[in-house]
UniProtKB/TrEMBL annotation:
The lineage of its organism: Bacteria, Pseudomonadati, Pseudomonadota, Alphaproteobacteria, Sphingomonadales. Keywords: Decarboxylase, Flavoprotein, FMN, Ligase, Lyase, Magnesium, Metal-binding, Multifunctional enzyme. This is Coenzyme A biosynthesis bifunctional protein CoaBC. The gene is coaBC. Catalyzes two steps in the biosynthesis of coenzyme A. In the first step cysteine is conjugated to 4'-phosphopantothenate to form 4-phosphopantothenoylcysteine, in the latter compound is decarboxylated to form 4'-phosphopantotheine. Catalyzes two sequential steps in the biosynthesis of coenzyme A. In the first step cysteine is conjugated to 4'-phosphopantothenate to form 4-phosphopantothenoylcysteine. In the second step the latter compound is decarboxylated to form 4'-phosphopantotheine. It comes from Hephaestia caeni. It catalyses: N-[(R)-4-phosphopantothenoyl]-L-cysteine + H(+) = (R)-4'-phosphopantetheine + CO2; (R)-4'-phosphopantothenate + L-cysteine + CTP = N-[(R)-4-phosphopantothenoyl]-L-cysteine + CMP + diphosphate + H(+). GO terms for cellular component: phosphopantothenoylcysteine decarboxylase complex. Pathway: Cofactor biosynthesis; coenzyme A biosynthesis; CoA from (R)-pantothenate: step 3/5; Cofactor biosynthesis; coenzyme A biosynthesis; CoA from (R)-pantothenate: step 2/5. The chain holds residues 181 to 397 of 397 of the full protein. In the C-terminal section; belongs to the PPC synthetase family. One of its GO terms (biological process) is coenzyme A biosynthetic process. Binds 1 FMN per subunit. CTP binds at residues 98, 107, 123-126, 142, 156, 160. Its EC number is 4.1.1.36, 6.3.2.5.
């Protein structure tokens, strides 16, 4: 096969949820399936990129040609991302837990009163990359929104210092589903795509990434 337009490029992708332990048997999680991120990693590899996929706990097969690093918590994900740099582009699809709690070393027992969880904010990996001396040339975040999708995602792009935000309309049943309605928010414009299978969102996004990395050499 032809070498692909992303041959020689290193692209970092995060995907899936993170799990924040409460004790050895319990954790805080979210409904991310990891499917959109895994599809993007696969589409980038199919375009010839060297892809490092940093995956939270999911039950998905590793896409062909992708190097996968499994992590559990947000802090582990942040460390794995830092170790993976430098990269030409980064696509942060993971639904990172916003908060963690200090895990109890033993299983918390019932019957001694209702425990209170004290939450601590997790590091924001997207912001960390945006301000890093090794900032990828093309930095792409995702934003799951239920309302005022474009408005909220536009504000998020500016606040986090991403080049693009892929705004994800999750007012339907997207998390875990097979299709996705997205808007690509850039500094200069917004591109709205029709509802597409996650595999097609992935191939279109890989095409746009290849176009952009070629333009800016
Ligand atoms: O603020 P919000 O969580 O909606 O931002 C979503 C974007 O930021 C996604 O690209 C997600 O992967 C990234 N993010 C991150 N680290 C966090 C929280 C979000 O990289 N702790």
């Amino acid at each position: 096969p032809a070498p692909g337009r992303l041959a020689g490029r290193h692209v970092l992708v995060t995907a899936g949820p993170t799990h924040e332990p409460i004790d050895p048997v319990r954790y805080i999680a979210n409904r991310s399936s990891g499917r959109q991120g895994f599809a993007i990693a696969g589409a980038l590899a199919a375009e010839g990129a060297a892809v490092t996929l940093i995956a939270g706990p999911v039950t998905l097969d590793t896409p062909a040609g992708v190097e996968r690093v499994d992590v559990e918590t947000a802090q582990e994900m942040a460390n794995a991302v830092a170790k993976t740099l430098p990269a030409d582009a980064a696509v942060l699809v993971a639904a990172v837990a916003d908060w963690r709690t200090d895990a109890a070393p033993q299983k918390i027992k019932k019957g001694t009163g209702t425990p209170t969880l004290r939450l601590t904010e997790n590091p924001d990996i997207l912001t960390m990359l945006a301000t890093s001396p090794h900032r990828p040339r093309l930095l792409i975040g995702f934003a799951a929104e239920t309302d005022h999708v474009i408005e909220h995602a536009t504000a998020k792009r500016a606040k986090k210092g991403a080049d693009w935000i892929v705004a994800n309309d999750v007012s339907g049943d997207v998390m875990g589903g097979d299709a996705n309605t997205v808007h690509i928010i850039r500094a200069q414009d917004v591109e709205s795509w029709e509802k597409l299978p996650k595999s097609q969102v992935a191939t279109r996004l890989a095409t746009r990434i290849a176009d952009t990395l070629q333009e800016t050499a």
